[in-house]
Each structure stands twice: as structure tokens, then as C-alpha cells.
């Protein structure tokens, strides 16, 4: 039986500084991350000792050196937040990794809380800059200079499910889910075939089917084997092929359908032959076709559109849940999946309130019609970028949301609460509560451990290999009976 799909996202944001000729992205990111302050005095290290980015899920270790910053750089580049998230500098981008959650509705809440945290830090950091300059942040995936940055999804899986089996069933799904996961993009990039408008921002940058890299020769399926949990029991599927989404509806459907499909893979419920003849070619063909009518060549000789292939997955999903007592969130995902595919089959523009690439396309086409512009206009490209602007008063998605022109799936109150409150049903609760209660004694943190520095004693590392332990139900009594970190460590060993 499939294991619970604990999940999370990692969002890299585009950054620039307006009116700064000497813009340095790395120093700007460091300033941004450190401008965000919480009500605790801790100077907490990120525990890189617990990470191994060179392990490949196909069963080997790749050549290379693991980068570990010194203590000063570590503190300057990393913040572990009281809501259980990590906010840090990744290469030349600020990145927000949301805390582990157990369902996609909570994922939407915590990913959106991340947007607000990053925007709050942008405002604070801008006040430290010279007059006339301003940090600008975009939840998008391309700087239009040939560089793409990621939106990564993570899903807990049973290690007994072979990686070969995952690749076999997941490849076609990831290629074709673009019809509802894309964030939309004017034009093409990375030497891809020219187009006026495409479904996704990332498709042009994928050049191979399966590999470990995330920055060079990007693969559709990433093989990083870094479970952040008990390695004997779990793997973390690291999905790098998706876009950064603004639409709550899109985020929920994207991760909800993917999580359901992964459970089906674990349970052996995918029995239809949907393998593509050329996935790398197909991922670009799907993205470059806003009509969603282009047929893809399958290995078995058949030709189907991406929507028809997604309809096959949906039919298998309905069969899979028949007779099961599924939760309300999963039911909602199935309803939304059905609704979206129905609209895509009739006319994709029916989804101008739900799906990012359609919302953006409708907005741009309306603007072009009013102004008498074409797709090559610089104003159109600016409109494309402005959709992703995090500033509430400037971002076009935020404007549409205020006007009630996009579908919401969570509330502002839920998002605001998630800025400071971790999910109650995963180990993120224990992590966040330790930061709130014992900030001066927390020495280092990783997803699956937390270390305490108590006086002159050796560092005490508490391992958290089970993502569903450390929840409020598991540890509330323990925390209540542990007024100090010393008490906590002693009680954990009792």
C-alpha cells in the first residue's frame, strides 16, 4: 500500500535591483535573507553534514566535491524559520523551501506564505539601499538572458518502489501535465523553436530524460537521492520540471495530481502503455502549443494529444480510488482535474480564472487588443514579467486577485497564520516549536535533524528520520514538560 505523500516545494525567485548599475545578485540575496527577522535571537547553522547531493537514485555516487560553507557564510546565507521553513541563498537566487506538509491544500497555504515572507524581506532590505534603488523579486523561471531557475517539488516515496519503475510511469505524466501546470511565457529561449506564446517557462531548458544535474543539461526526471528521512525506508522524489505558479488553483492541481499518480505507481495501478517516443522533443511540443491539439508520438505507434494522455491518467486515478475512503482534498483534486481537462478539450481559454498560462494569455491578449500591439512588442514582454511581480501593488496576478478575477482555494487568514505557524501534522511542528521555545540553544538544523548546544556540553543531535513524527500530536506533551532545551534532551533520552 502506498505511503502517505508528505511533500513540499522549493522556490527560487528572480531578483534584480532597480537603478543599480553595479547590481550583484549574491550580495543582494544575502541582504534580502538577513533583512527578514523573527522574534528570536538564535544564530543557527544549516547542518550540511546531513546532506549528500552527489548520491544518484540509480544506485551510485557521482564524482564531485560537496560544498560546505564556513560557519560565518553559513549563518549569513541561511535562515531556519519558526514556521518550519528554510529561507536561504542558493547560488544567485533567494530560495524559500516550505515546511513538510501532508496534503496539497496545506502546500498551497505554505507556498503562498513563502511569497509573503520573501516580499516582507524585500521591503525591509530595500530600506537599507541608497535612495532611488529598489529590490524587485519575481516568482518566475527565466531572466531572459539564457538563465533558468527552478521551482522544485518534493514527494516522499517508498524506497521499495524501484526508481526504474518511477521513471517508466512518471515521464509521460510530467511531459503532458504542462497543459495545466504551466505559468505561461511570451516567446522561446535556449535555442528552442520560435513561438509567440507557450504554456511553460521551463520546457525550453530541458535537454535530457534522466540525470542528476539541475543546472546543466537539465533532465525531465532528476535522480538526486537525498531522502531527508530514513534512507532504508524512504526516497524523496525531487521534481524539477515544473514552473513557479502564482495561481493557487494551479498549485493545488499540479501537486495534487502528481502526488496521486505517485501513490498509484507505488500500488502498481498504472497499467496502460503511454510511453513517449521522444520525451525531450515532446516536452517542447506540448509547451509550444496553446491550442493543446498537437498529437504526440507514443512508443507503441499511437498518437495522442497531451490532454488525451492526461485523460488516460485521470481515468486510471478514478479507478484507483474506487472503493477507497479518500479524503476531501483528494476528492477536490479529482474534481478540478476533471474540470480542467474538460475545458482544455473544448477551449483552453475557458480556464482564464484557474490556470496560470491561460490567465496570463487572456490578460496579455486583452492588453494587445486595447493598445494595438503584437506579440513582439516590448510592452507585451514586460506584461509577461509583471504577472510574477511579488509586490502586491504592482504584480498583475495580485491585481487580478484583488479584483476577484482568479479562483482562490485558501484564505488570506490561513496564509498569514502560516508565516509563523508550522504545519501541525509533520515533524516541521517540532522544528518550529524548538526555534520558538529554545532559540538560544538550537545550534544546527536540517530537515531530518536538529542539534542543541547546551552550555559546555557536546552538541546533542536529535534525529528526525520519520517525517510524520514530531507532529503536534506526538510532541506537544513532551514540549510542555520541557521548559528548557536541557530538559527536552533529557526527556527525549528517558
How would you explain this protein's 3D organization?
With about 500 residues, the protein is an alpha+beta fold. The protein has two domains: about 5-40 and about 80-415, Creatine Kinase, Chain A, domain 2 (2-Layer Sandwich), CATH 3.30.590; about 420-494, no CATH class. The protein contains 16 helices and 20 strands. A hairpin with a 2-residue loop joins strand 7 (about 85-90) and strand 8 (about 95). The longest helix is centred in the first third of the chain and has 23 residues, at about 105-125. It is globular. The mean pLDDT is about 95.
| Helix proportion range | 25-40%
Mean of all residue-level pLDDT scores: 95
Q: Determine the number of helices (DSSP H or I, runs of at least 4 residues).
A: 16
Radius of gyration: 22 Å
Low-confidence stretches: none
Offer a few descriptive terms.
six-stranded antiparallel beta sheet; alpha+beta; 20 strands; four-stranded mixed beta sheet; Creatine Kinase, Chain A, domain 2; 494 residues; 2 domains
Write the layout of secondary structure elements.
Elements: E1 7-12, E2 14-18, H1 25-35, E3 45-46, E4 55-56, E5 60-61, H2 71-77, E6 78-80, E7 86-90, E8 93-97, H3 104-126, E9 134-138, E10 151-158, H4 163-176, H5 178-181, E11 185-186, E12 197-198, E13 206-211, E14 218-222, E15 234-239, H6 248-266, H7 279-287, E16 295-297, E17 303-305, H8 306-321, H9 328-346, H10 356-371, H11 378-386, H12 396-402, H13 412-418, H14 428-437, E18 442-446, E19 449-452, E20 460-463, H15 472-480, H16 485-493
Parallel strand pairs: 3-18, 13-14
Antiparallel strand pairs: 1-8, 1-10, 2-9, 4-5, 6-7, 7-8, 10-15, 11-12, 16-17, 18-19, 19-20
Amino acid at each position: 500500500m502506498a505511503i502517505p505523500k508528505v511533500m513540499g516545494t522549493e522556490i527560487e525567485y528572480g531578483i534584480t535591483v532597480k537603478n543599480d548599475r553595479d547590481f550583484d545578485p549574491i550580495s543582494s540575496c544575502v541582504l534580502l535573507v538577513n533583512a527578514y527577522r523573527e522574534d528570536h535571537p538564535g544564530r543557527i547553522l544549516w547542518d550540511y553534514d546531513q546532506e549528500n547531493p552527489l548520491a544518484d537514485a540509480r544506485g551510485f555516487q557521482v564524482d564531485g566535491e560537496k560544498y560546505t560553507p564556513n560557519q560565518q557564510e553559513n549563518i549569513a546565507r541561511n535562515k531556519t524559520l519558526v514556521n518550519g521553513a528554510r529561507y536561504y541563498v542558493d547560488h544567485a537566487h533567494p530560495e524559500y523551501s516550505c515546511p513538510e506538509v501532508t496534503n496539497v491544500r496545506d502546500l498551497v497555504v505554505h507556498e503562498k506564505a513563502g511569497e509573503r515572507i520573501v516580499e516582507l524581506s524585500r521591503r525591509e532590505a530595500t530600506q537599507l539601499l541608497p535612495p532611488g534603488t529598489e529590490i524587485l523579486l519575481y516568482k518566475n523561471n527565466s531572466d531572459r538572458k539564457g538563465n533558468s531557475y527552478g521551482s522544485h517539488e518534493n514527494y516522499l516515496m517508498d524506497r521499495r518502489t524501484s526508481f526504474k519503475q518511477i521513471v517508466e510511469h512518471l515521464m509521460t505524466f510530467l511531459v503532458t501535465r504542462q497543459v495545466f501546470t504551466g505559468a505561461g511565457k511570451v516567446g522561446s529561449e535556449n535555442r528552442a523553436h520560435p513561438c509567440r506564446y507557450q504554456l511553460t517557462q521551463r520546457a525550453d531548458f530541458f535537454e535530457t530524460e534522466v540525470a542528476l544535474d539541475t543546472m546543466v543539461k537539465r533532465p525531465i526526471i532528476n535522480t538526486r537521492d537525498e531522502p531527508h528521512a530514513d534512507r532504508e525506508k524512504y526516497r524523496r522524489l525531487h521534481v524539477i520540471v515544473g514552473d513557479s505558479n502564482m495561481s493557487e488553483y494551479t498549485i493545488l492541481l499540479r501537486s495534487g495530481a502528481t502526488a496521486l499518480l505517485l501513490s498509484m505507481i507505488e500500488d502498481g495501478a498504472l497499467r496502460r502503455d503511454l510511453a513517449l517516443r521522444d520525451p525531450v522533443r515532446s516536452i517542447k511540443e506540448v509547451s509550444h502549443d496553446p491550442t493543446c491539439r498537437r498529437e504526440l508520438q507514443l512508443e507503441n505507434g499511437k498518437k495522442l494529444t497531451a490532454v488525451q494522455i492526461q485523460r488516460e491518467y485521470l481515468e486510471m486515478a478514478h479507478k484507483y480510488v474506487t472503493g477507497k475512503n479518500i479524503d476531501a482534498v483528494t476528492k477536490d483534486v479529482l474534481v478540478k482535474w476533471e474540470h480542467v481537462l474538460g475545458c482544455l478539450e473544448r477551449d483552453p481559454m475557458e480556464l482564464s480564472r484557474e490556470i496560470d498560462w491561460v490567465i496570463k494569455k487572456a490578460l496579455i491578449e486583452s492588453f494587445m487588443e486595447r493598445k494595438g500591439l503584437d506579440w513582439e512588442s516590448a510592452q507585451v514582454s514586460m506584461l509577461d514579467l509583471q504577472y510574477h511581480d511579488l509586490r502586491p501593488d504592482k504584480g498583475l496576478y495580485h491585481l487580478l486577485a484583488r479584483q476577484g478575477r482568479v479562483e482562490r482555494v485558501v484564505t488570506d487568514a490561513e496564509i498569514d497564520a502560516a508565516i509563523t505557524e508550522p504545519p501541525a501534522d509533520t515533524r516541521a511542528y517540532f522544528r518550529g516549536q524548538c526555534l520558538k521555545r529554545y532559540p538560544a540553544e538550537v545550534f544546527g538544523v536540517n530537515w531530518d535533524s536538529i542539534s542543541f548546544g547546551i552550555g559546555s556540553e557536546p552538541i546533542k543531535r536529535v534525529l528526525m528520520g520519520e517525517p510524520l513524527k514530531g507532529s503536534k500530536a506526538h510532541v506537544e506533551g513532551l514540549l510542555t514538560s520541557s521548559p528548557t532545551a536541557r530538559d527536552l534532551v533529557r526527556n527525549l533520552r528517558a
